[in-house]
């Protein structure tokens, strides 16, 4: 027998309704997805509350349609409830161009390979005339001024925007001299530099090896215990301070 056709759509009230699920299997799948089952004089229906956020309605409706189709039901899901047909998150940022630009700056900061590359990326934030922080400060200041122009009674809200602009200005002042320091961030780590120095200086490497050698440590102990008559195999690494003959 052909499986019944199930339609999942939105109503004018904002509720999402699934119609056509007359058998028990489709009813169980809808309930498992998150639909509430209602039985009245209209028959058996499944719906999502109008108070549910739209994103949750889309997620539940898409999941229900996926399960029903896997069970070989013919499902008609309206495009507005189909996650696969919705805009990608990147398209959602079109309304927030400034935020998208800052995300790009963040990516450049994280991918910087040296101090100069990091400085160039950070300069997009800190440039005193064209940097992002300066633009944010100006926007906050303008918002506070315009609030006062639109409503004299909203002076507290206007002051909050003014205080926020001052905080951004403080952040700019804190980082104003960081450009030269950012250039010096590049270079090998200290451990890598020390390793390179030891490899290029054999005598330094030998001295370092003797310094951690257990045998050398035993000789030091013996020298302290029995006096200076004990031969010193480390004389090349640690020359004697005595200029005259031993007594």
Please write out the topology.
Blueprint: E1 5-10, E2 16-19, H1 24-33, E3 36-40, E4 43-48, H2 54-70, E5 74-77, H3 89-92, H4 97-111, H5 115-126, H6 132-150, H7 155-174, H8 178-183, H9 190-200, H10 202-211, H11 214-226
Helix pairs in contact: 1-2, 4-5, 6-7, 9-10
Work out the radius of gyration. Answer: 37 Å
The total of beta strands comes to: 5
Q: Please state the average pLDDT score.
A: 76
SSE order: EEHEEHEHHHHHHHHH
Helix-strand makeup class:
alpha+beta
Major sheet characteristics: 5 strands, mixed
Strand order across the largest sheet: 3-4-2-1-5
What is the general shape? elongated
> What percent of residues are in strands?
5-15%
The end-to-end span amounts to 115 Å
Provide an overview of this structure.
- There is one protein chain.
- The protein has 247 residues and is an alpha+beta fold.
- It contains 11 helices and 5 strands, in the order E-E-H-E-E-H-E-H-H-H-H-H-H-H-H-H.
- The protein has helices at residues 24-33, 54-70, 89-92, 97-111, 115-126, 132-150, 155-174, 178-183, 190-200, 202-211, 214-226; strands at residues 5-10, 16-19, 36-40, 43-48, 74-77.
- A hairpin with a 2-residue loop joins strand 3 (36-40) and strand 4.
- 11% of the residues are buried.
């Amino acid at each position: 027998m052909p499986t019944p056709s199930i339609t999942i759509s939105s109503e004018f009230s904002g509720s999402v309704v699934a119609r056509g699920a007359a058998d028990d299997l489709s009813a169980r799948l809808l309930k498992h997805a998150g639909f509430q089952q209602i039985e009245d004089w209209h028959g058996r229906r499944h719906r999502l509350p109008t108070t549910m956020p739209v994103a949750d309605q889309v997620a539940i409706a898409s999941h229900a349609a996926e399960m029903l189709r896997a069970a070989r039901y013919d499902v008609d899901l309206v495009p507005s409830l189909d996650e696969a047909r919705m805009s990608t998150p990147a398209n959602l940022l079109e309304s927030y161009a400034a935020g998208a630009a800052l995300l790009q700056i963040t990516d450049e900061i994280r991918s910087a390979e040296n101090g100069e590359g990091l400085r160039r990326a950070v300069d997009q934030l800190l440039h005193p005339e064209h940097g992002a922080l300066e633009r944010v400060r100006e926007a906050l200041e303008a918002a506070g001024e315009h609030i006062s122009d639109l409503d004299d009674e909203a002076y507290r809200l206007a002051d909050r925007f003014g205080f926020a602009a001052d905080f951004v200005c403080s952040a700019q002042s804190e980082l104003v001299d960081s450009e030269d320091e950012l250039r010096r961030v590049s270079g090998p780590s200290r451990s890598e530099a020390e390793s390179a120095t030891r490899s290029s200086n054999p005598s330094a490497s030998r001295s370092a090896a003797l310094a951690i050698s257990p045998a050398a440590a035993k000789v030091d102990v013996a020298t302290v215990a029995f006096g200076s008559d004990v031969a010193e195999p480390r004389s090349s690494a640690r020359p004697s301070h005595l200029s005259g003959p031993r007594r």
